[in-house]
Amino acid sequence: MNEVVGSHDLLLVTLDTLRYDVAAELAAEGRIPHLASRLPGGVWDERHAPGSFTYASHQAMFAGFLPTPATPGPHRRLFAARFAGSETTAEGTFVFDTPDLVSGLAAAGYHTVCVGGVGFFNKRGALGSVLPGLFQESHWEPEFGVPSPTSFEAQVACAEKVIAGLSPDRRLFLFVNVSALHQPNWFHLPGATREAGDSRATHAAALEYVDRHIGRLFSALGDRGPGFAIVCSDHGTAYGDDGYTGHRLGHEVVWTVPYTHFFLEAS
Q1: pLDDT given for residue 86 in this prediction
Q2: How far apart are CA 61 and CA 10, in angstroms?
Q3: Cis geometry, peptide bond prior to residue 74 (ω within 30 degrees of 0)
Q4: pLDDT confidence bin for 180, thresholds 50/70/90
Q5: Do residues 183 and 202 touch, judged by C-beta distance below 8 A?
Q6: Is the pLDDT of residue 218 over 80?
Q7: pLDDT digits over 8-39, tens only?
Q8: HEC per residue, the chain
Q9: Which long-range CB contacts under 8 A does 239-245 form with residues at least 24 apart?
Q10: CA dist list (Å): 96 to 48, 49, 136
Q11: How do beta strands 172-178 and 111-115 pair?
Q12: Which pTM value belongs to this model?
């Protein structure tokens, strides 16, 4: 990452609440072609989330603790705060001297931008201002939030405007928190109803919706010049699994998440 930071734009996309099993199934079934085309061999990397809900997980990721490979480690990290005794900081790790990755990249000359999604990014109160407050520029509108059936399209349009307005010689760190997977998501499945509520099937339909629009985001950033993208979930969620519903709990479907990273080039 020391060869990437400074020469490449950086994109971090969190597909908020996306379960690994659903992501893996849809990739295998050819239902998310834009995302699958970016996966090595068309397969997501299976990882463990650093937290069981949005706030905790993003605090960890912004400190350099991205989801960890679901195999025995230690595993070298891409980014890390300077910390004596760290067993996952290696020669290729980008080490920053600030409390978080966002300010570390700003110190390295990046313009840092947040396009928020779920409530922890809505800036409507003190708690919803903590995470977007890490960035030099942050955006949130009600249309970006979980109740909106067109949330991701609106987020991508916002990101495209940000990218178009930035000087070509300024490096960009763009973070997008995608809210479409989060409950409520029933409206993404044709024929589903509010009364029937959300399900694993509507969760999958929400991922298909995201896939239909995410290519625009990759193209907008790739057309600026070399880029490096990380796409992952921050945690999963339960739909009646073993009697559990939701997240902020210790079930396997909450802790196991999909992850990938790849380089972006001009389309």
Answers
A1: 84
A2: 14
A3: yes
A4: very high
A5: no
A6: yes
A7: 999 999 999 999 999 999 999 999 999 999 99
A8: CCCCECCEEEEEEEECCCCHHHHHHHHHCCCCHHHHCCCHHHCCEEEECCCCCHHHHHHHHCCCCCCEECCCCCCCCCEEECCCCCCCCCCCCEEECCCCHHHHHHHCCCEEEEECCCHHHCCCCCHHHHCHHHCCEEECCHHHCCCCCCHHHHHHHHHHHHHHCCCCCCCEEEEEEECCCCCCCHHHCCCCCCCCCCCHHHHHHHHHHHHHHHHHHHHHHHCCCCEEEEEECCCCCEEEECCEEECCCCCHHHHEEEEEEEEECCC
A9: 239/198, 239/199, 239/200, 239/203
A10: 23, 22, 17
A11: parallel
A12: 0.96
41-95, pLDDT tens digit by residue?
999 999 999 999 999 999 999 999 999 999 998 899 999 999 887 888 888 999 9
Binned at pLDDT 50, 70 and 90, residue 267 comes out as low
Residue type, 208: E
**The tokens of 241 are what?**
């699994």
